Please model this.
Amino acid sequence: MNADIARALIAEAKRIVVLTGAGISAESGVPTFRGPGGLWKSFRPEELATPEAFARNPCLVWEWYAWRRSLVAECQPNAGHIALARLALELPGRTTIVTQNVDGLHHRAARAVAGRADSAPAYPLEVHGAIHRDRCSGCGRVSDGVTDVDPTSVETLPACVKCGAMLRPDVVWFGEALDPAVIGAAFDAARVADLCLVVGTSALVYPAASVPEVTLQAGGAVIEVNLEATSLSRLARVSLRGEAGKLVPTLID
Ligand code: OAD
Ligand code: ZN
Model:
């Protein structure tokens, strides 16, 4: 059975890189981007998630991110996040989690699983940033996200305590470069991994979608967990169809 092959690949791998996307958080109640009910079905990314949109209409952009920030704050990590945190904490240094998600749920799962132990080995490389942080559009200072954003006017939007410029969510927008240190570390982990476990991503957005390709090129194997087939499915050694919150724990626990 495919799941048995996947379990054996995970058990035998010396180094594992995990790439997650919106699908891992779907069962926590965080909307995905491209599937049924996905955010990009009812919102236009060019109006909400580009530097040009922020320059044109920062109130609208902030209204949307403040809504998503409060939505995510109400969500809890699910059994998929918890199982991946266990995998990463079991043998620190063996597993690197790379996530495209900005929801912080991998961090929260890591802290829940580690208890009083060091949760850092299960913290993901967040290649698209984190929605619960702000970054200054002027000096770049990063801070905890403002929770009571008032998007009624430019004057009421959050401003930097250091330089006074407008704050923005600390996420990567379309047309922006990823932090080279973060995506570089993700590719380094992918290169040395004998296994890449890909969970809940349409694998359409680059450069993040290159993570499994790097593992494949270096001779490693790919396991995919997704509700449906993606462009990665035919390259994967094992492609499992189903919900991440149900499937991932059965592969790891
Ligand atoms: P997408 O919305 O493009 O894809 C979500 C994937 O998860 C789809 O392939 C679904 O079939 C799958 N899926 C949905 N629910 C699932 C479940 N319960 N279990 C398993 N799989 C499930 O989201 P991403 O691939 O994460 O970028 O999108 C990549 C990037 O595009 C995001 O990081 C975001 C977006 O624009 C930025 O914001 C920069
Ligand atoms: Zn500043």
Q: What stands out?
A: The beta strands are 16-20, 95-99, 125-126, 129-136, 142-144, 167-171, 195-199, 221-226, 238-241.
